[in-house]
Structure formats: structure tokens, C-alpha cells
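Field log, afternoon session.

UNIT: design team B
ACTIVITY: writing a sequence onto a fixed backbone
BACKBONE:
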């Protein structure tokens, strides 16, 4: 698989999307205490590492390739999620 194919398959992974949404929700709730950059960076890295460690077995794609593309995918999902959150907050304020 090429890196682009891996990223496209990861973008469609509902488990990954759910973890990124939960990461954004957690960041919103703990922003006053922990800030937002470090928890988001650590969360993106954690998701990128934990999914290939637990859900893939005998894949032809090397582990480091899955982690590297996972970080890219998670950042894309995170940017989209934060954009939607900002839009929702702006519309809510009126």
C-alpha cells in the first residue's frame, strides 16, 4: 500500500474518528488546567501509536509507516474537528 492509500483508509476508520472527537471534547473540558497544545499533540501521537499496536495483525504495512501516516491522518481529522468546533461556537454566539 502506498502512504496515500493508508491515509485514505485511516480517514474512513470510525474508531480513529471517534478517538479524535473524544480528544477534542476532553481538551475542551480540561483547557483551563492543561492548556490545549500539549494535550492535543500527545493525544494525536497516542492514537497514532495505539491503533496499529492493538488492531492490526499481520499487516503488510510496516508499523512505523502506519504510525507516521496515522499522525498525518490524526492531524487532518483534528484540524477538521477544531474547525467545526470553532464554527459551531461562532454560530452559537450569534
Amino acid at each position: 500500500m502506498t502512504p496515500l492509500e493508508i491515509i485514505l483508509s485511516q480517514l474512513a476508520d470510525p474508531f480513529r474518528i471517534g478517538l479524535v472527537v473524544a480528544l477534542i471534547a476532553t481538551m475542551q473540558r480540561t483547557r483551563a488546567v492543561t492548556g490545549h497544545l500539549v494535550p492535543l499533540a500527545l493525544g494525536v501521537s497516542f492514537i497514532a501509536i495505539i491503533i496499529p499496536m492493538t488492531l492490526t495483525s499481520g499487516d503488510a504495512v510496516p508499523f512505523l509507516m502506519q504510525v507516521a501516516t496515522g499522525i498525518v491522518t490524526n492531524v487532518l481529522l483534528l484540524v477538521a474537528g477544531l474547525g467545526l468546533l470553532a464554527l459551531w461556537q461562532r454560530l452559537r454566539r450569534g
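LOG NOTE: The mean pLDDT is 92.
NEXT ACTIVITY: expression trials, pending approval
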